[in-house]
Design brief:
947 residues; mainly beta; TIM Barrel; 6 domains; 7-stranded mixed sheet; 9 helices; 37% strand; disordered N terminus; beta-galactosidase; beta-galactosidase activity
């Protein structure tokens, strides 16, 4: 963080000296903005500050503005669930100075606060600027012409109470389910306007080019209004013919039409600038305002859907708090852009402002980069805002944000916190007459129920004629929700005629830096660990799952087998873009250098032709097969959207695991196997290796290479198998030893026969003089599995440095979150992160990893190993993730198999804060269909100990 320590009055004085010397380069008809604070968290300006209680209280010092004072080492940290009587209800006193040049005399000078938490008493030169403002997240201003000393230094004082004297605001903002901060947390500036200014503009620009604008001003000198349309760079596009539809005191309404404009939508966020001039009788410009606009039409059609520019919309949205760990609610333009870009990267098209209006620059980023927005007045459950203060806050919200094309709906509070007396107030200030919703309720045309279970998507209740879009769903506590379960929900939502998508909870883990606790990141237990990304933007696994599921180019699942013809079925899930405006690329890759120096070799790159499918249509595209395409290991398909953005990269293994040629030599010129059968174990030795196998259970008891112990043991343990060993067979096959362990079959009364052996579980080791071990495991199956099926080993976790693997990665998977991975060559260092709670290191080292072909466990002391998995559709289990604290209904880590390195055929799903996994859809059920009862499941592996 950078603090500007120069005296603010000197800065302003020098600036205006510069302007005077160079002849006042700014036109008299323009608005001037002079910041008294910084513009965000990265360029704060020092003000004098006094805090009444908590850290660093009871004395005057300096504080950076804008900021939340807790993050600057003052006051006390509070989460909204804290009992009110345990809070320190501190207040802060702020003081700074500014110079008002004499040239401002006769102009309109406004003092603007973009956001203060929460009650703000403002004085200029010792006099009240106006009434105390209540409500933290709303812009307010005072006209201070009569309070300013021109040509001299002026003193600005602000008293900020962290809690409000209005109890309904405290319930809305101070007792809500989020972090509570105090301070002048958004910028403060002076707005200097001409004597006859445009107070504000309210504009309705429709997709057909029609414009209606309310021009607010208070001047008897206005004779005419002039309008021009500029492009987003400020270049004039066309002068607009004006019709004055009405003239009332303080407001003229004009109508006009722009020709051949490009519409605004999230896929093509085309923006323009409407320039409005007030002219006097001599055609002099009294004041000029410029307002960015986008041409688009929003309709909420009862019993039908939400339409933008005539297209029915599926919201692929997320809830987002204004939050950063080191600055609390104080943001920056750069961070707003980064957040919108991250949402766009996940193929989202919408965001809900939870649970208050955001910074203006966030809405600007939604306009320019393309996101639908639900803008919300801050309440949280009950009781609601009282009507008197609520009407002020609704007005402040709508007046500030009315012109953003990204905003398509208003939300009157959250989860029962709405005041019905305010529902119609939005229309008083919104020239576009956007609809109002009650998030989590059936209200007017919509049903926005929160956290419904998967089976609720049958949507056959009394509200079945309402447009359905949950404004919160798939609660992402820890590693649960978000991507886990989204595929099942979205498959249904996409097909629901009245389904308008939904909004995930939520965007980022809100872990705040506790300067009072040595900088620890604190998410208040499970209250704020809900993010798709970590506190500093770390991408969790669900980030990529969402990216794939919400890709506007949908490719049906397929597998490459013999006879592959290169044809893929595709669906256009854009709303406004034909597929011929997108790009698709193919890449054929071969893995080389295994097992010592693994690498990837690109065999070919291809640009593909996509069909000109309109939104909602299905078709196909062709990947030309390269010569000897079967020699590739994987085919990648990468789609790019109309702005060149990568939508997703899909991967398709070309070879099965058994088809991958193992670069292993069994040459044994100077090696022989020495076998010792001693009591309960069998020892097999060469000059380099020594292996011990249990005759009781067939498991490895000990491994050595060149005298160095390799601590892989305790396996293979067949999961879910309790039978005893019946027979141990040793067979010599050339220079190899085959050690086979048969377990007791169900019918123990029969004598051993070849038929009985076939029906029994068995383990077969093949030991080579080179030190290589081949393992074959045959297990009886059941048609419906409700427990793990596979094998497991033990390896000391403290001995592991890293892992490499070929398979799906780099993120771990759950049964209801397998999307978002790519088949490839991956590596990551050991970590012990707890998703959303501690560590925040991604990808996680521990967990389940799908479709594993090859694994290299890198030990700390040359005691690792490599294993080739020759069986398709095998999951690797690498250790057991730590259980997060208090995961509520289902967001905890499910039970893992015995041991800590396992190879299994089925894995568990994970739930959410509010739902167990089985409530989240088919993938959340533990049952797995694998074949007929007692059908054998065979798994084959090769182990190499050459570290």
């Amino acid at each position: 963080m950078k603090l500007q320590n120069r005296p603010l009055g000197l800065i302003v004085l020098l600036m205006f000296t510069f302007l005077n010397v160079y002849g006042r380069q700014e036109s008299e008809s323009q608005t001037q903005i002079i910041y008294l604070s910084g513009t965000g968290k990265d360029d704060m300006v020092d003000w004098d500050f006094y805090c009444s209680a908590g850290m660093n209280s009871g004395k005057w010092s300096k504080i950076g503005v804008p900021s939340c004072w807790e993050l600057q080492g003052f006051g006390a940290y509070n989460y909204g669930h804290d009992p009110f009587e345990q809070r320190l209800n501190e207040y802060g006193l702020y003081k700074t100075t500014f110079v008002a040049p004499e040239t401002w005399a006769g102009k309109t000078v406004k003092l603007v606060f973009e956001g203060v938490m929460t009650d703000a008493e403002v004085k200029v030169n010792g006099k009240l600027a106006g009434e105390i403002h209540q409500g933290a997240f709303y812009e307010f201003n005072y006209t201070i012409n009569d309070l300013v000393n021109y040509g001299a230094e002026n003193t600005l004082e602000v008293k900020v109470n962290k809690s409000s004297s209005n109890e309904s605001i405290n319930f809305a903002e101070r007792k809500a389910d989020f972090w509570i901060f105090g301070g002048i947390f958004r910028p403060v500036y002076l707005e200097v306007l001409p004597a006859d200014p445009i107070d504000r503009l309210a504009i309705d620009a429709r997709a057909d080019g029609s414009i209606v604008a309310d021009v607010f001003f208070n001047s008897s000198n206005v004779h005419e209004i002039q309008a021009r349309l500029l492009d987003d760079e400020g270049k004039e596009v066309q002068e607009l013919p004006i019709t004055i539809a009405s003239r009332t005191a303080g407001k003229w309404t004009l109508k006009t039409f722009a020709k051949e404009v490009r519409e605004w939508n999230p896929e093509s966020p085309n923006l323009y600038i409407l320039q409005v001039n007030l002219l006097d009788h001599e055609q002099n410009i009294l004041h000029q305002r410029q307002q960015k606009i986008g041409f688009r039409t929003v309709q909420v059609r009862a019993g039908d859907g939400i339409y933008v520019n005539g297209q029915r919309i599926k919201f692929k949205g997320v809830n987002r708090h204004s939050f950063y760990p080191t600055s609390g609610r104080t943001m920056s333009k750069a961070l707003s852009i980064e957040h919108v870009q991250l949402m766009k990267e996940m193929n989202m098209n919408a965001v809900r402002m939870s649970h208050y209006p955001p910074d203006k620059h966030f809405l600007d980023a939604c306009d320019s980069l393309g996101l639908f927005v639900i803008d919300e007045v801050c309440t949280w459950q009950s009781p609601a805002l009282d009507t008197q203060v609520g009407r002020k806050l609704v007005r402040e919200t709508v007046v500030r944000d009315v012109n953003h094309p990204s905003i398509v709906l208003w939300a009157n509070g959250n989860e029962g916190g709405w005041n019905p007396e305010l529902d119609d107030d939005y229309a008083l200030w919104d020239i576009q007459q956007r609809e109002v919703i009650h998030p989590w309720a059936v209200f007017r045309k919509t049903n926005t129920v929160h956290y419904g279970g998967y089976h609720g998507l049958a949507y056959d209740a009394y509200s079945q004629d309402k447009i359905f879009f949950p404004t919160e769903f798939m609660h992402g506590l820890y590693d649960g929700g978000h991507g886990a379960g989204l595929e099942d929900y979205w498959n249904l939502m996409w097909q629901m005629p009245l389904g308008a998508g939904g909004f995930l909870w939520d965007f980022a883990d809100e872990a705040v830096v506790r300067v009072d606790k040595d900088g620890v990141l604190d998410s208040d237990g499970n209250h704020a660990a809900d993010g798709i990304i970590g506190p500093y933007g770390e991408k969790e696994a669900s980030f990529y799952t969402i990216k794939e599921i919400w890709s506007p180019i949908f490719i049906e699942n397929r597998f490459i087998r013999e006879g592959f013809n290169g044809k893929f079925t595709i669906e256009n899930r854009f709303h406004f873009t034909a597929l011929n405006h997108c790009k698709m690329y193919a890449k054929w890759v071969k893995f080389t250098g295994l097992p010592t120096t693994p690498a990837e070799k690109i065999l070919a790159r291809q640009e593909l032709s996509l069909p000109a499918l309109e939104p909602g249509h299905r078709g196909s595209f062709q990947v030309p097969l390269i010569d000897d395409w079967q020699s590739a290991d994987v085919l990648y398909l990468t789609a790019h959207g109309p702005q060149g953005e990568e939508l997703f990269t899909w991967s398709y293994p070309v070879k099965s695991p058994e088809q991958q040629q193992l670069p292993i030599s069994h040459a044994t010129a100077d090696q022989e196997l020495e076998v010792q059968d001693i009591g309960d174990h069998i020892t097999v030795k060469t000059s380099d290796f020594a292996y011990r196998f249990s005759k009781i259970n067939g498991q490895i008891m000990g491994l050595e290479r060149l005298g160095n112990s390799i601590p892989l043991n305790g396996g293979p343990l067949i999961l879910g198998q309790s039978a005893k060993v019946d027979t141990v067979l040793q067979e010599r096959l050339g220079d190899q030893l085959i050690l086979t362990i048969f377990f007791e079959a169900k019918d123990n009364t029969q004598q051993w026969s070849s038929e009985k052996r076939i029906s029994s579980d068995k383990i077969s080791w093949t030991i080579y003089p080179s030190g290589q071990l081949d393992l074959m495991v045959s297990m009886k199956s059941r048609k419906n599995l409700d427990d793990y099926k596979g094998i497991t080993f033990s390896f000391p976790e403290e001995e592991v440095r890293a892992k490499q693997w070929i398979g799906d990665g780099p993120y771990r998977v759950w049964r209801n979150r397998t999307k978002g991975t790519q088949f490839g060559l991956w590596e990551n260092e050991y970590n012990d992160t707890v998703t959303g709670e501690e560590g925040f290191i991604y990808p996680e080292f521990k967990g389940f990893f799908s479709n594993v072909y090859w694994l290299n466990v890198q030990g700390k002391h040359e005691n690792g190993f490599k294993v080739y998995c020759k069986s398709p559709f095998t999951f690797l289990r690498m250790f057991t993730p730590k259980q997060p604290s208090d995961p509520k209904n289902g967001a905890g880590i499910p039970a893992f198999p015995e041991g800590n390195i396992s190879f299994v055929k089925n894995i568990p799903p994970v739930g959410t804060k509010f739902h167990t996994a089985d409530e989240l859809g088919p993938h959340g059920n533990a049952q797995t269909i694998v074949g007929n009862d007692d059908e054998a499941i065979n798994m084959e592996f090769t182990f190499i100990f050459d570290h």
